[in-house]
């Protein structure tokens, strides 16, 4: 049977793309296996590569602080990345690297079955909501086309380290996330997937191109 442990051990010894050649540690992800929220960043940075854990550097500390601000503890969510090994010098992951790594993420999503997927940064967002720009969609929940899951796109916390004004935007979006989670709890917003869409769930890697039918706006 598939499990997060099985995935993590496969990831740690994975050689499916060139990023295995330069990594120190692969970074499968951490957190509650039954988390209601799954955070997905782009790829491990230097600190993450050294420690084998996602979001432990400066951007990660900021993410933890932002979570705490809305009353969520890091241990209660699950955190991972689109690619599990660090791209050299933090370059963007290549499409073929993302494609090679995608099945791990896909399996994690199925196993955790989160109520909400929070994408961190534009690269992660584009894989779930093709056709959107981060500047227009941040803080706005959407339903993913392939399986109807709620996607909540956030700017990458690293942005606020370079541009302090972004901190305000990130904080505001975090509070929108909190509001949405409360609506899910009270039943005003359904996190349930559209069952007819599940049957057509595709493990294909979303490409960067604009999608023909943009994902549905939630509210
Ligand atoms: N940035 C990411 O996208 N992921 C990490 O794990 C750390 C920094
Ligand atoms: Fe394997 Fe993903 Fe690491 Fe590439 S990035 S070697 S596919 S775990």
Structural descriptors:
9 helices; binds iron/sulfur cluster; binds uracil; six-stranded mixed beta sheet
What does this structure look like?
The protein has helices at 4-12, 46-51, 58-69, 95-112, 122-128, 134-137, 157-162, 166-186, 195-199; strands at residues 30-31, 37-41, 78-81, 116-120, 142-143, 150-154. The protein is α/β, with parallel strands linked by helices and 219 residues long. The chain has nine helices and six strands; from the N terminus they run αββααβαβααββααα. Helices cover 40% and strands 11% of the residues. The chain has a six-stranded mixed sheet with strand order 1-3-2-4-6-5, sandwiched between helices. The protein starts with a helix and ends in a 20-residue tail after the last helix. The radius of gyration is 16 Å and the shape is globular. Strand 5 (142-143) and strand 6 form a beta hairpin. Uracil binds next to helix 3.
